[in-house]
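User: Okay, second chain of the day. Same drill as before: sequence in, structure tokens out.
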Amino acid sequence: MRQNAKHIGIVACSAEGAALCYRTICGEGEVLMGPHNHPEISMHTFPFAAHVDCMRNDDWQSVADLLVASGEKLARIGADFLICPDNTAHKAMPLIGARAPLPWLHIADTVAQEALRRGYKKVGLTGTKALVESDVYPEKLARAGVDFERADSRERQEVDHIIFEELVRGVTTSESFRSLYAVAARMKTCGCEAVILGCTELPLLAEGHEFPLPVLDSTRLLARAALAKAVDTSA
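Assistant: Same drill. Structure tokens below.
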């Protein structure tokens, strides 16, 4: 049983994405640490509306300020490093710079490295409209030598609506699953070998269903990366 794991700080935005990340760390922690064991975890979240209002106003500096403020609170109570189980919020990461109170694990880095590990040459990118149109994933995928296909304009609008009106509230419907399935199916025809679920709530929609492509589950990949870092005393 590992007793000296690092303390994980979760900078949360939406409840559903953060909860899935938290549950994954706790549930898979005992594989590495023994029965009923997992690293120490602390979480802070401002009201999700604070993040959403800034995102909708294209005010990414304010999103960065919220992330820093959460991180500072977590640093004060002893977290060793930070994760943010919200893909779209990572658009604000370049605006944090030297203000980061602790090291961050970047969600797109984690996904890109998994795509590279699996040998994918081209992947599809889904998520909120702001995320898909940003450089968050393209930059990290390029470094890993992985090509990508973005969801098209109509798909972005449709998936964005599903995320903000349903998934962040824990609502999943068969109609919305069919919409996500259709996006992945189109990406397969474009040569994609996998699809990135680039919103931390999208795994809730895909759970337990057959899919046209293998998925890169950003939420669980981030959780597993945090768990691996926490139990690796050399990290």
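The chain has ten helices and eight strands.

User: Thanks, on to the next one.
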